[in-house]
Amino acid sequence: MNRDPLFRRKTSISYKTEEKTVLRGYNLSDLAEKGYSFCDAMFVLFQNRIPTAAEEKMLKYEMGVFLEHSMSPSAAGAIGVITGRPNLPCAIAASIMTFGGVHGPGAAHGYMLNKYLDRAHKEGKSLDEMAKILVDEYLDNKTPVMGMGQPQHIDSDPRAEPIHVKQEELGVQGVYLEFQRAVEKHFHARRKAEGRSYVGVNVVGSGNTALCDIGFAPNAAWCIGSVCRGFSCAAHAIYNMKRGRAWGASRNEPMVQMIDLSMIKYIGPEDRRVPKQSERQEYAKNQKEQGEYKQWVI
Amino acid sequence: MGDLGDKKGIGNLDSPKMPYDYSKREYGTVPLDTKRAPFQWVSEVAYKNVHRIVARGYDTTELMEEGYGITDVLFVDFQSRIPLVEEEQMLNYVMILSFEDGLSMPVLMSRMVAQSKTFLTQACGASILAFGHAFGAYSAFGNRLEEFLNHAEQEGKSTAEMAKLLVQDNLNDESLGVSSLMLKDPAAKRMIAHAEKLGVAGKNIAFMKEVVAAAQQASSEPVDIDMLGATGAVMMDLGFSPEATWAILAVTRSFAAGAHYIEEVERDIAENGYTRLGQALTPKDIYDGPDDRPVPSLEERDKNAQPAQIHTPDQWNQAFQERQKIFGTGYRIHEEIEDPSKKTGVKSVGKKLD
Predict the structure, then answer these.
(1) Residue A172 pLDDT more than 50?
(2) Which of A9, A91, B93, B327 lies most in the core, judged by the most C-beta atoms within 10 Å?
(3) Nearest chain B Cα distance for residue A166, angstroms
(4) Which chain B residues contact residue A90 at CB under 8 A?
(5) Rounded CA separation A258/A249 (Å)
(6) Could you please report the per-residue DSSP string of B116-147?
């Protein structure tokens, strides 16, 4: 059996011999044998260190609370993909790929915090002062403040505040939580002064703050969150695969299905005759000159 | 709703720090909203009923019956128009050139997925994931070209001036469309010449020529238009948006990726078998992380563990720099993660029923 590497790359994360698999210097088997957890290994992978017990607990909490979120873009993506009945990994991959600039933008939140912490450092400002600057700059530019607001949980995300409190209880609060709390304070104050409704912190604002305080970089935190969600999306996909209708369009179901024909709403050009090939060139020329088509170009 | 009893005493949920009484939050699903239009899949591209499939108003069966083909339907779907004969011919040309690229990344991904014993569709799908903002960077390339052309029009600058600015900012960018990749292969320049011959070359190809000239002047090594630059400019002169170009050419390549999957199964896998979990080794000679070290006992955790918490911006800065020294932590990366829908906006449809 050929055991040559598929690709040759320099790496400082791991190596694998016939004898062992070593992650950041630790024999993986030894890590497991000595009672460390999957969450502990996450710190070794991304941070090259064994975490404190409190840090390990914080990660365990964050991953557990983030894992399931019922119908979000990620679950909807997995369900949509699985109705065609490809292999399951396709649906799971699709669900993880829904995480972007709006759905669970953990890296974007982390980058935002780091950018303003850097400014606080360089400009000699307090965290509170810099938090107000952040809020003012974002809201003046009509840019959403990352980590605030959730379209479904409009009366405060049920996961968010508890994560903040858990972080304090475990004593793993640091500069990120202090800064995030200050951002929230100034965010609420400004919206209130403008007579706008209350918008609470979301799970990215709190969960990612906790991940930052326990040492994870923005992309590492994003990886943890979005891949963790893949677990529950796999469950949604498997449920639909085993108990749901393939295709999602059956007329025999008591409930209208996802892609029943009546579900299609068309708002494009009106029905029109297909030109004959003999008139095609003139037709196409007129169409191009009139330019009506341009409103439909995507 | 059954009696759920006393909900107090769950973790931190009774904490006075909580801004609300968590135990008072209701259970149960949310009833259907009967005051708004029911769910529909909204599209301006196509619809179907029991008897017809209609794209942009044209019955697709009628299109085929009248002698139109796949390339025509791409114009219909993405641009809502029938192409000129010359435009259809040019798109065919582009798609043939985009079909195969040897053992490049989409094919490697397809073949690697094949090694796991998957469906062909899984390998084809994986190949599409190879198209990013370096390899097959039609979105990055096209949006930049559009941006600078728009600036030229709005600011009254010549395209030659804008080309210089574009090159000044992006000379070494993977999505420039000018590089040393095609110095000995005439395919890119032949594609441009073909577009000119068919009379479909427009402002994008003209601007791309200015970009090439500016890059040749700015570069210390010989460069010329590459396949990305030629294909991207031609597709945009055919009226396709950067995103449509990206999608069409990635899918075009995926056909060939399917063929590579088949050959992989028929030849390599037939001879050597599929790749199993844990089979591939990572030799230590390519590892430069920490030396092997004993895993401390859990009882020794406090002695070994270093907490990550920092409390001031200065400490944060110091810690940040330290963390950047370790590869694989993510601290060296900073990137913009944007919501691409902001470019086009979302059309509101439907209405309240009350």
Answers:
(1) yes
(2) A91
(3) 7
(4) 121-122, 125
(5) 6
(6) T---HHHHHHHHHTT-SSSTT-HHHHHHHHHH
Q: Is the residue at B286 inside a domain?
A: no
Going by pLDDT thresholds of 50, 70 and 90, the confidence category of residue A73 is: very high
**DSSP-derived secondary structure letter, B20:** S
Q: Is residue B293 part of a domain?
A: no
The answer to whether the Cβ–Cβ distance between A266 and B84 falls below 8 Å is no
Please tell me the total count of domains within chain B: 1
Q: Domain A53-263 is in which class? A: mainly alpha
Mean pLDDT, to the nearest integer, of B55-69?
95
Beta-bridge mates of residue A15: A22
Is A102 or A46 the better-scoring residue by pLDDT?
A: A46
Q: B222 and B183 in contact (C-beta within 8 Å)?
A: yes
Q: At what angle are helices B159-170 and B138-155 packed, to 10 degrees?
A: 140
Q: Tell me whether A16 touches chain B (CB under 8 Å).
A: yes
Domain segments of chain A as ranges: 11-50, 53-263
Q: Is some CB atom of chain B closer than 8 A to the CB atom of A19?
A: no
CB-closest option in A26, A272, A293 to B295: A26
| Mean pLDDT of all residues in A197-219 | 95
Alpha-carbon Rg for chain B, nearest whole angstrom, is 28
In a domain, B224, yes or no: yes
Which uninterrupted H or E stretch holds B41? Answer: strand B41-43
Confirm whether B111 is domain-assigned: yes
Which pTM was predicted? 0.86
Distance from CA of B234 to the nearest CA of A (A): 17
B353 three-state secondary structure: coil
Are the Cβ atoms of B338 and A101 closer than 8 angstroms? yes
Residue A6: its chain B contacts at CB < 8 A?
A: 112, 275, 280
Top residue of A133, A163, A175, A188 to mutate, by most chain B CBs within 10 Å, is A175
Crossing angle of helices B227-237 and B187-198, in 10° steps, is: 20
Instruction: Yes or no: say if B249 and B135 are a contact pair by the CB < 8 Å rule.
Output: no
Residue of A nearest to B43 (CA): A266
pLDDT band at B38 (very low <50, low <70, confident <90, very high): confident
Look up residue B137 and give its two tokens. Answer: 């960077």
Is the pLDDT confidence value at B336 over 90? no
Residue B1 has pLDDT above 50, yes or no: no
Cβ-defined contact of A165 to B18 (cutoff 8 Å): yes
Give how far B200 is from chain A: nearest CA, Å.
13
Q: Which amino acid is at B199?
A: G
Mean pLDDT of chain A: 93
Domain around B243: 84-276
Q: Using an 8 Å Cβ cutoff, are B250 and B97 in contact?
A: no
Mark yes or no for CB contact A268/B80 under 8 Å: yes
B32: which 2 tokens?
């259907």
Q: Is the separation of the CB atoms in B35 and B352 below 8 Å? A: yes
Q: State whether A164 and B312 contact (CB < 8 Å).
A: no
The tokens describing B177, both together, are: 């469309």
Say what the ipTM of the complex is.
0.77
